[in-house]
Amino acid sequence: MKSEIRVRIAPSPTGFFHVGSARTALYNWLFARHNKGKFILRVEDTDLARSSEGMIQVILDGLKWLGIDWDEGPFYQSKRIDLYQKYVQKLLNDGRAYYCYCNPEDLAREKKAAYERKQDWRYDRRCLNISPQERAKRERLKTPKVVRFLVPDTPVSYHDLIHKEIVREAKDVEDLVILRSNGIPTYNLACVVDDFEMGISHVIRAVDHITNTPKQLLLFRALELPVPEYAHLPLILGEDKSKLSKRHGALSLMTYKEQGYLPEAMLNYLSLLGWSPGDDREVMSTREIMETFDLSRINPSNAVFDEQKLEWMNGQYIYAMSDEELLEQLSPFLVTFGLIHETDIAAKKDWILKVCGLVKLRLKTLADVNEVARYLFVDDFEYDKEGLQKHFNADTIKVLQEFLSKFEDTEEYNAQSIENCVRTYAEAKRLKARVIIHPLRLFVTGKQGGPGLFEIMELVGKDKCVKRIRRKINEFKEQHER
Ligand code: GLU
């Protein structure tokens, strides 16, 4: 292993930050932090037509949200074009690369035709040995030209830290274009130059890049540069075992933020997509993960993105929060769902803290608050259909009407006194308490289940409870008196 660990994340801005790229960033960062090395951020934005500042910002925001900090960069490849051109020139001077004047559309057509005949197609080096006269003619005509790497005729093998020995025959590697006709380098060339220039010791990236690695190794050799170590991370699959795609749910990291996932939970979950601590720990703090993280524990087989497990893990993190922390995280969601005005949060802080304590166990995501606790904040909530079928009838209306007159008379108002009122009334009427409790819960919360009803009623407040019970009684009467 090289003395200083220097790793990088090299995202191409494509408009969103894929969870797979976030996992790659995380593993590099964990590896750097664990080994007291450096983590470098490099933006691969040479595809100028597809990159924009906004897209780059999405990546930076995603990293910041997860708490992944970088030591150097961001470096932008689009600002380093001269540097790549110098390396290309060196390859040309050394006879390791050559100009190619072929028309890309003609080549694409040939390739397509070969593909249709089910034949392999490789660029046949027809520009490698063109005569000086022919070259002069093409230059005179200003025929667009690219630079191709003259791939040496030797097999490439290397030791991947995750996939072990990898061998690639030279005949499988085509003379790749390294500089486009507009003077912009291609990914493989720019990547090799930067990995060298930035002193990268380990290239840790997703396995879909494994076919690029032999090309990059050949470029390193041709440029007589030291080669980094390689570790190719397993793919992330959807639950149906196909490559993770939109139809499996969200691919963008920030969508998880919007859905109310906590960055620590997301980081914890992503860390386990291909790596494990070697024991049965799952919920682990970032510090713990960082201390335990090691490339040798990365599993070469594909990982499956299990939304339910992520949800479960997020719920664990929410449950472990103090009420104060939860209030802080929950507030933007309360405002977004119209449960409270931003300006009222401070004044109602003590009350919201109690709500946090009451519903914490039931939140898998912060956004669940709208479903789980809406009725604690506002009167316009939906009623459970099955609950209405069971408890919205003449018998329960009669019971609740009688109960309501007792309930309105209570002087003290807290969970205990509410419970006493329910039980005393039930005993007096020789009813089972649940005969009152079930419709009461439905009328006050719209739901058939949830946290303790008496605690809920205390938080909702007496006036609102009375109003809600009366609302249902009146509704029933209106429907049946017509
Ligand atoms: N720009 C490449 C990507 O976003 C980086 C590949 C690499 O890490 O070498 O996939």
Automatic annotation (TrEMBL):
Keyword annotations of the record? Aminoacyl-tRNA synthetase, ATP-binding, Cytoplasm, Ligase, Nucleotide-binding, Protein biosynthesis
| Motif extent ('KMSKS' region) | 243-247
Any one GO CC term of the record: cytosol
Residues binding ATP are K246
UniProt-listed SUPFAM superfamilies: An anticodon-binding domain of class I aminoacyl-tRNA synthetases, Nucleotidylyl transferase
GO MF, any single term: glutamate-tRNA ligase activity
Q: Locate the Glutamyl/glutaminyl-tRNA synthetase class Ib catalytic domain: which residues?
A: 4-312
* BP-aspect Gene Ontology terms: glutamyl-tRNA aminoacylation
Which segment of this protein is annotated as the motif 'HIGH' region?
11-21
Q: Signal peptide position in this chain?
A: none
Per its UniProt record, what InterPro entries does this chain match? aa-tRNA-synth_I_cd-bd, aa-tRNA-synth_I_codon-bd_sub2, aa_tRNA-synth_I_cd-bd_sf, Glu-tRNA-ligase_bac/mito, Glu/Gln-tRNA-synth, Glu/Gln-tRNA-synth_Ib_cat-dom, GluQ/Sye, GluRS_core
Q: Where is the Aminoacyl-tRNA synthetase class I anticodon-binding domain?
A: 325-472
| CDD domains the UniProt entry points to | GluRS_core
- Where is this gene product found? Cytoplasm
What family is it from?
Answer: Belongs to the class-I aminoacyl-tRNA synthetase family. Glutamate--tRNA ligase type 1 subfamily.
Assembly and oligomerization: Monomer.
Q: What does this protein do?
A: Catalyzes the attachment of glutamate to tRNA(Glu) in a two-step reaction: glutamate is first activated by ATP to form Glu-AMP and then transferred to the acceptor end of tRNA(Glu).
Can you say what this protein is called? Glutamate--tRNA ligase
User: Which species does this protein come from?
Assistant: candidate division WOR_3 bacterium SM23_42
